[in-house]
Structure formats: structure tokens, C-alpha cells
Give the backbone structure.
Amino acid sequence: MREPEFVTVVREKTVVSDGVVGLVLGHAEGTPLPSWRPGAHIDLVLGDGLVRQYSLCGDPADPSAYRLGVLREPDGRGGSSYVHDSLSTGDRILVRGPRNHFELEDAPSYLFVAGGIGITPLLPMIAEVDAGGARWRLLYGGRTRRSMAFLDVLDRYGDRVLVRPQDGHGLLDLRGFLEEATRDTLVYGCGPEPLLTALEDACGARAREMLRVERFTPREAIHDDRDGMFEVVLAQSGLTLTVGPGQTVLECVEAAGIPVLSSCQEGTCGTCETDVLEGTPDHRDSLLTEDERADGTTMMICVSRCLGERLVLDL
Amino acid sequence: MTSGTTTSSGPGPSVPVLDDDPFSRSFLADPYPRHERMREAGPVIRLSHYGIWASARHEQVFAALTDWRAFSSASGVGLADFRKEKPWRVPSLLLEADPPDHTRVREVMTEVLSSRRVRGLREEFAAAAEALVGDLVERGTFDAVRDLAEVFPLRVFPDALGLPEQGRENLMPYGGMAFNGFGPRNDLFHEAMADAARIQEWINEACRRENLAAGGLGQDIWAFADTGRITPEQAAMLVRSLLSAGIDTTVYAIGNALAALAAHPGQWARVHENPALAKLAFEEAIRFESPVQTFFRTTTRTVDLGGVRIGPGEKILLFLGAANRDPRKWINPHTLDVTRRTAGHVGFGTGIHGCVGQQVARLEGDVVLTALARRAATLTPTAAPEPRPNNTLRGFSSAPIRVEKAAVRSR
Ligand code: HEM
Ligand code: FES
């Protein structure tokens, strides 16, 4: 069974800090939104194959609204710039989910660490933990105070919250913060990769049992990575080619003078589909179904690569 | 024909104005010199006859097709503006929709026409092509349109869909309605719509679950209604999409490919020599003689296209067929070259509305041309092809040819 998928309407869009906008989404049909728990995120399906994941940062008890914080991504393209520049109140957006890979587990005490926009999934966690009376503290870092979103929401928690913008405080003192941890404290972290790695280091041997993190890896980044060389054997033409990093199989085959059809060159149209006789493709298209991927007997050579060292294609 | 220029509002260069009627019979019968005039007049032009914008250049057509946020389909991809005029039929859930509504149904349709599913059709389609083409080649002379292009898709596609046998003669007229329906209410439109009510009734019946045969694409679509991803109403509408978009297009495409190859004996010789080139030849023919010539978009905001500022809510006519012959993009665009690198042609559109049935279309083209390439050493036109005017489609009503049977080859 597929997860829920439904159309929402943008009810509010506000600037919540430098580079971050807050969105409030309601169900397009005015019905209650699917329920969720702190730590959950949803997919915004923005078209052109653009799917972006955002944590829900509002109140899980309110089925009429999803609240999100959206950071403008530095590369300037993709989903976040669309949300920032074009999306406006009243627009309709397709949503998938919610789903949760960052569940809030029961513990007598918590330490939260947020870097930048990583604050979003922690907000509902903090609200719940605080209401339940558990002990907790939050260490919140960001570039500058002005870039740090939702400081107003955090205000009411007083000195349980340590706001540490980098321009005034330098890098977060994770070790110092973690000294408060007792044997049954859970540490929840969300933010950029270097922060999470540092947090893992700081937890040391106990990371496995006490640390829960959520990583924000834009899908685009995964798809952009084209490294890795491999060999492609063209069975019909009797040629063996080497696909270099940064090169597609399609480019390589065309450069060898073999005419093949292609069109979109981004894995969305199916034109360049080619039979795979040997080897395991690394599928990066948006067309093949899960079954077809697992089968591995066909691939879109404009984007897909090789999981091993060698592919034999029916070309 | 006259032309002039006007200054667009605000800063920016003046915009050429042409008074051609791109839906007149004379334009449709001989579009290429007129395309050239429009293409060379500027990246974006005004067509005063309808008070609309237009582009015949590859760069701008491509840019508009890939920017659905600025160039919307939901107001109709024909001349009629659905915000102001009632469409002649309930708008298509795919073609005449924008995200997010478009996204969900498009995903369903992409799964219905999955690569595995289309591969599964190959054997049957190839056998039908071998049989039909085998008979025609035995005859020596035949009409590439009437005897082959109009026959083949109707022999295979309705069965693949699981349509009822009775009433299939309504399919071509329905396609005629759909594609003439994108134009103005000219005589082509009215002729096509003459029997509209009766034909639409048959179409609506044919799309119902109980009238579709088990194992066909129609039932595959309906199966998605059970999972809740689409509603039963949407399922019926998606079956309709396949009926209107999947038949005439391939009839025209196969006819155009055969006519083009007959007119270029050197190119046919290459395909005959190496039938593996058949699918490249079909693709090149779609570039060269694009079955779908035009589609409209409507601007959602002020946009800059090719340095021209267009205000919101404006209709713009995109000449796919002219973009596919733009010398800025193609070397020797008016020459058919079966090994040309055709990537980037917009004969199937591109972007989020890019043809969802293109692999089915390619399969049909491939099996027909392959069957013919194995059997016919030469194709020779015995009379000039007869254009068949349509407000959107380009093609012929007749293209008589003579074939020279090849010596038997093993393969
Ligand atoms: C050679 C034959 C064909 C040609 C030239 C062709 C051309 C096109 C073009 C240009 C579009 C884009 C429309 C736009 O941008 O507004 C399109 C869309 C579409 N085509 Fe085709 N087509 C062909 C065959 C088929 C077949 C066989 C099917 C069905 C199996 C099909 C189903 C569709 C559908 C449903 C759409 C709408 C997709 C959407 O809006 O997302 N077409 N086609
Ligand atoms: S060229 Fe479109 S999927 Fe590869």
C-alpha cells in the first residue's frame, strides 16, 4: 500500500529569519491532515521530478495545519528557491507522507543539538518533552543570530535553550554540552553533516545507544554524484569502452560512434532505455518501477551507471 | 501576407507581427516556407490574426515546454482559453492540467505504460507488422497511408487497450475531433465535430470498466482506482486520454515516416541494408515531418522569452514542427538523415507533458519499418502525397508507393 498523497494549499508564507521562510499548509479539501509524531517529515512534490523533504515543526495535535521551515539552499536551484521565490499563498502543492525516521523515544532526560534549519524537527519534540515534564536542554547553533529561525518560539523556554550563533561563539562546544548527559539521557541531533559527525565523535563509544540523528541530504546531491569509472561492453558492436567519472554511458557510447536514441537525458522519458546483458546497473532514472530496477535487465543509459566494474549492453 | 512590428509594452525590443493564419488550409498544406518566415522574423512573434504570441524557434519552444510554472497547460493547450470559454469536452487530466493535479495522474500513467509493459507488447505488434507488411510487399504497389499507416495502429493498439470490437471506426474520427479541437472554430473544427455527440457517447462507453477486456492497458488503469491513487472518474478519463492521444498520432507518424523515406531513396537504402536503423529512421522522421505540429501554453505571470516580455494570461502558440527544423539547432534541417543525432527534438514535446506514450509510438514505428526494411529494397512514390489538413496534426491522406522486393535474406 502506498503512503498517503494529497494536495495541500499554502495558507501562510512568512519570512522567519534570514534565508528561511515558514510555510503553513492546509488540506486542499478542508479535511484533517494525516496525523504525525514529532520528528516526522513530508515530501513536497514540486514537479519536474523535484521532491523535497521537510520536517514538520508545528503541533502534532493540530490536524488542520502542517508547519515547515524552508531554508534557501546555497546552490540556488531546485526546490528551495522555488519555495522562496515563486510559491505564494493560495498555491496548491502535492504532499506525500508524513513518515518518520527520527522517532522521539521515551527517556527521563534529553539533550537536543540543532544546527541551522535542523531546528525544525526538534521543535515539536521539545514541546512534547517539555509538556511531559522530562529534563531537557537545547544547544542551537547557526551562522548568525539573524539566520537562526524560530528563536521567538524558543524564547518561552528560558535558559534551557542555549543559542550559539557562530559569529559570536565560534563552533559549538559539543563536549561541554554533553557533560550534562547521564546514563539514560537521549541525545537528538539534526543539522549539517559536519555537525552530526562532530556530535558522533563527541558521544564516542556511547553514540550507538544514546544518539539519534537526522541527516538532510538533498536527493539532488545523490543524483549529481557521477564518480566511479567502469567498463561497458557493447555486445553487438564488439566494443569495450571505459566510462569515466563525470561522463554518462550515453555520452561514452555516442562518442564511440554508435548511434543510440536519447531525448531528455535526465532519466525521465525512456528514450535511451537499453538492455543489460551482464552486470548490475546503478539506476538513477525516474521511470523504472522497483521490480524493474531489481530485475536489472534494462537501464536508462543517459543517467544510470554501474554498481560493479562492468556492464554488458545490447548495443 | 504582410508583416510589421510593434513595440512591446515596457523595455525590450520591438516584436515582429505577422498576419498569417497558421490554421488556414493553405498554411497547413505547405507549412515549411511559412515556418521559416516566422522563425526568421524573431524568437517570439505576434500573430495578429488571433492576437496571440508565437514562437517557431527551437530555443524558445524548448524553454517554454520545460517551464510549466510560467507556461501553463491548465487553460488549454489549444487556442481556446478555458478561463474564458467553455471547452468542447471535459479537459484532459494530463494534457490540460498543471501540477500538482497533473503530477499524480501522470505518475499513474507512467506506471501503466512502464517499460516492462511496453516490451510485453512487442511480440504481438511485430507479428502484426510482419503479416500486414508481408502482404503489401507481395502486392508491389500500395498506399503507404491508406493501406499501412491507417491500418496498422488500429490493428494493434485498440487490442492492447482492450477496447470493444464494436464501434472502433469511431476512434479515428474522435482523434480528428481532439486534434482539430485545439485550433480555432474554423471549417476543419466544424467538420470534425459534425457527429460529435454520437462519437463522444461511444468513447465514454468504451472507457467504462465493464467494457474493457481483461489484460489490456485500460484495465491496468482501472486497477489503480482500486488502490485509491485515482478515482473511478479519473480512471475513465485516463482511458480516454489513451484513445485521443494514442491513435491518430501514430497513424500520422507512420504515414509521414513512409512518405519521407520514399522521398529519400538513399536513406531508405541504408535502412534496408541495416534494419537496426529502423528505429532511428522513425525518430528522425518525427523530427523531419512532425505529426504534432503545434501546442499552446498560457502565461501565468510576466515572462521573458527570447528577450521579449509577455504579460500574464497570454496565449502563446509553440510551433514544435518548426522548432524541429530550426537551423540554429539542426544541421541541414530540411534533409532527412536517418543517423542524425535527434536528441532534443520536440516532436514528442518535452518537460512534464512530454509524451507519456512515446515508447508505444516508437515500438509501432520500429516494427513497421523493420518489417518493411527486411522485405523492400526500394520505395518509390508513384504520386505526390496528398496532405490531410488538421488544426494540429501534419500528415497525408494518401501516399501511393511502389516497392521492389528484396532478395530473400536470412535473419
Ligand atoms: C508518434 C506518435 C506520437 C506523437 C508525435 C505524440 C506527441 C505528443 C506530444 C507533442 C505531446 C505533448 C503535449 C504537450 O506538451 O502539451 C504528447 C503528450 C501525450 N501523449 Fe503523445 N504522441 C504520440 C503517440 C502517443 C501514444 C501512442 C500515446 C498513448 C499510448 C500518447 C499519449 C500521450 C498522452 C497521454 C500525452 C499527455 C501527457 C501529459 O500531458 O502529461 N501519445 N504526445
Ligand atoms: S534520454 Fe530520456 S530517459 Fe534517457
User: Anything to note?
Assistant: DSSP finds ten helices and 18 strands in chain A. Chain A touches chain B at residues 1-2, 5, 7, 45-48, 82, 86, 92-94, 254, 259, 261-265, 268-271, 273, 287-289, 291-292, 298 (CB under 8 Å). Residues A 262-265, 267-272, 285, 300, 302 surround FE2/S2 (inorganic) cluster (ligand 2) (CB under 6 Å).
